[in-house]
Design a protein that fits this description.
Layout (H helix, E strand, L loop, with lengths): L1 H11 L3 E4 L2 E4 L8 E2 L5 E2 L2 E7 L7 E8 L4 E2 L2 E2 L4 E8 L1 E5 L5 E3 L4 E4 L5 E5 L5 E8 L7 E2 L5 H4 L1
Antiparallel strand pairs: 1-2, 3-5, 4-7, 5-6, 6-14, 8-15, 9-12, 9-14, 10-11, 10-13
């Protein structure tokens, strides 16, 4: 687990990934951040791509920054998702289960096909690194937005 966190931290700083030709440096800030798509996020969420999938990793890494009240829509991942909380306080909820608080340093594993959402609490922003894994060119299945009633 420490190796996963270290690799994520290195990528966040724009450091190296290994490719077939050797080490590739992905400089911090070279990939533009985007606003979270309103079909997939409620509130203000900024998605910063850090590492696109390649043949070696088949993983996609990004940083997501949520303002208070912002959250993802319900969704699943065909090969699971790893979240590493880097700042603030957030919530994660698996469908049919109690919402759980997450905080800096927490590592959350969401198994394949588990329907869930995650985001900031109503009073605190939250940032996390999100690593997803590709299956047949797809890493997420977005569903409907989380209603205010479900969020509260």
């Amino acid at each position: 687990m420490k190796a996963i966190i270290a690799a994520a931290a290195i990528s966040l700083m724009g450091a190296a990934q290994v490719s077939a030709e050797g080490i590739e440096i992905r400089r911090s800030g070279n990939t533009p951040s985007v606003m979270g798509n309103a079909k997939n996020f409620s509130g203000h969420a900024v998605v910063s791509p850090l590492l696109p999938p390649n043949e070696s990793t088949r993983a996609n890494l990004g940083q997501v920054d949520f303002t208070p009240g912002a959250r993802t829509a319900w969704h699943t991942h065909p090969a699971g998702q790893l979240l590493i909380v880097t700042a603030g306080k957030g919530w994660v909820q698996e469908e049919g289960k109690t919402r759980q608080e997450i905080a800096p340093g927490d590592v959350v594993w969401i198994p394949a096909t588990v329907r869930h959402w995650h985001g900031a609490t109503s009073t605190s922003p939250m940032s996390h690194l999100a690593m997803t894994y590709m299956v047949n060119g797809k890493n997420v299945d977005w569903q409907e937005l989380v209603s205010d009633e479900q969020y509260q």
